[in-house]
């Protein structure tokens, strides 16, 4: 939802800072460029550390800070800086979260269904994003910024922390042999069919 909200209304937000529509569109480019660079960097780091949850957690603070600046300041320069942090806090987490879900679902069908749910639920939230930046709320757009910030805190930050801790706990149990009972009496073929339920499958954190 923050992705759709940011994409749909960034030029509108910038135009409310006193810039013309043409200049507002041009000023919307640098935040996207910065977000593209950070998205690639976070992907590179997460691939090598296998700490996708921690990457989400750290990056989410940028987005929260950016929308806090939108809500708390009336200065155009501060609000524009907030759009940079907002983009940096949203875009890298989209690619990282989809990959995180893919890493932790083994088996072609299970991975396909899992990603379908993740991406489908994200797309459904486009309905929310298209209704929170209302014309009557300009120029501050308190409702829109507040809802986006709530999503970033509740679902991105707290959701990533909860998932990271749950997966770390499960990995500890597997490494301690507490899931070995799942493969007792099974053939190699049946064990392979367990996918990410296998005791030797370690989740990406």
TrEMBL record:
GO molecular function: transmembrane transporter activity
Domain of life: Eukaryota
Gene3D superfamilies the record matches: MFS general substrate transporter like domains (1.20.1250.20)
Cellular compartment(s): Membrane
Keyword field contains GTP-binding: no
Protein name: Major facilitator superfamily (MFS) profile domain-containing protein
Sequence intervals crossing the membrane: 30-46, 53-72, 78-101, 113-133, 145-167
Topology of the protein relative to the lipid bilayer: Multi-pass membrane protein
GO CC list: membrane
Keywords: Membrane, Transmembrane, Transmembrane helix, Transport
InterPro entries to which the protein is assigned, alphabetical: MFS_trans_sf (IPR036259)
Record bears the keyword Methyltransferase: no
């Amino acid at each position: 939802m923050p992705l759709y909200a940011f994409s749909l209304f960034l030029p509108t937000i910038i135009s409310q800072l006193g810039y013309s529509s043409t200049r507002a569109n041009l000023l919307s480019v640098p935040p996207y460029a910065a977000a593209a660079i950070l998205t690639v960097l976070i992907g590179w780091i997460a691939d090598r550390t296998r700490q996708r949850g921690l990457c989400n957690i750290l990056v989410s603070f940028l987005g929260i800070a950016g929308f806090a600046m939108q809500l708390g300041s009336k200065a155009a320069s501060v609000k524009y800086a907030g759009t940079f942090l907002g983009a940096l806090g949203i875009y890298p987490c989209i690619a990282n979260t989809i990959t995180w879900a893919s890493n932790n679902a083994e088996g072609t069908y299970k991975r396909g269904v899992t990603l379908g749910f993740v991406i489908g639920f994200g797309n459904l939230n486009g309905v929310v994003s298209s209704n929170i930046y209302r014309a009557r709320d300009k120029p501050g757009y308190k409702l829109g910024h507040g809802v986006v910030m709530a999503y970033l805190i509740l679902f991105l930050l707290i959701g990533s922390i909860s998932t990271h801790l749950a997966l770390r706990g499960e990995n500890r149990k597997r490494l301690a042999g507490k899931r070995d009972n799942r493969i007792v009496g099974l053939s190699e073929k049946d064990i392979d069919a367990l996918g990410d339920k296998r005791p030797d499958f370690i989740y990406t954190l």
